[in-house]
Amino acid sequence: KARIDAYFQRKRREGKRVWPTTLRFVWAREFGEIKGKKHYHVVLLLNRDTWCGPGDYNDPDTLAGMIKQAWCSALRVDAEAHAVLARFPKSPVSWLTRGDDTQLQQALSQAAYLAKRE
Question: Does the first or last residue of the chain, that is N or C, have fewer Cβ atoms within 10 Å of its Cβ?
Fold first, then answer.
């Protein structure tokens, strides 16, 4: 959230239009089947007028870059050395339009891994 706020402030200072967004998210913790290591799955819900996708995965100024930096900050590790700890799916974006049930069903299917049963 702090990185998003800083991003908005920087864009405003540059005189660029900023589309407001509220960060919403869903997460699940899992333990790997083989090594039993803890890991997390996260779905972020954002305004598509603000970000229509993650952007360049190697650019720290894109949404993907901010996600990597935030995750490394939460883990208290160096972002450059450990950016690979944040991974993204092959199709990381679903757009939802209010009232479009087809889009909603597609997004729910994509995020269904969060509801795995033991």
Answer: C
